[in-house]
Amino acid sequence: MSEITQEQVAHLANLARIALTPQEIESLTSELGSIVDNVAKVSEVATPDVPATSHPIPLQNVYRDDEPGVTLTSEQALAGAPDHDGSRFRVTAILGEEQ
Predict the structure, then answer these.
(1) DSSP string of 38-76, one letter each residue
(2) What is the mean pLDDT of residues 19-40?
(3) Residue 77: which H helix or E strand, with range?
(4) What angle do CA 66, 75, 65 make, to 5 degrees?
(5) Taking the domains of the chain in order of start, what are their residue ranges?
(6) Are the CB atoms for 29 and 5 separated by under 8 Å?
(7) Residue 84: helix, strand or coil by DSSP?
(8) Which of 94, 74, 73, 93 is nearest to 85 (CA)?
(9) Partner of 78 for a Cys bridge, out of 14, 41, 63, 84, CB 3.0 to 4.6 A?
(10) CA–CA separation, 62 vs 50, rounded Å?
(11) What CATH fold (topology level) applies to the domain 6-45?
(12) Which family does it belong to (predicted)?
């Protein structure tokens, strides 16, 4: 088992500004210890001749040709808008910006 202590978990929680109960600290100590142990196991078997992988099977993005099609008119797009100025959506100003 890893050498992670409850005091270390409590210290990390304090640094992260997370309030933990004693039961949560105990549970997280065990869980974090298990994670550290598993990472150590993987590090032991990882060798330079084995390439790093992010996924067990090769993936490839599937793209389609960009073909123009039928689109909405401005009137159709604005028909369901709660507020508009005739040609654009109107939204509430944010961050103290003036209209």
Answers:
(1) HHHHHHHH--TTSPP-SSSS----------------HHH
(2) 93
(3) helix 74-78
(4) 5
(5) 6-45
(6) yes
(7) strand
(8) 74
(9) 84
(10) 28
(11) Histone, subunit A (1.10.20)
(12) Belongs to the GatC family.
What is the gyration radius of the CA atoms in the chain, in angstroms? 27
Contact at 8 Å (CB) between 33 and 2? yes
Q: What is the pLDDT of residues 62-99, one digit of tens each?
A: 898 989 999 999 889 899 899 998 889 988 888 766 65
3-state secondary structure of 89: strand
Two structure tokens written together for 22: 């004693």
How many residues in the chain? 99
Contact assessment for residue 31 and residue 1, using Cβ atoms and an 8 Å cutoff: no
AA letter at 82 = P
Phi, psi for residue 38 in degrees, rounded to 5: -65, -40
Determine the residue type at 69. Answer: G
Distance separating alpha carbons of residues 20 and 32, to the nearest angstrom: 15
Show the tokens assigned to 20.
């933990």
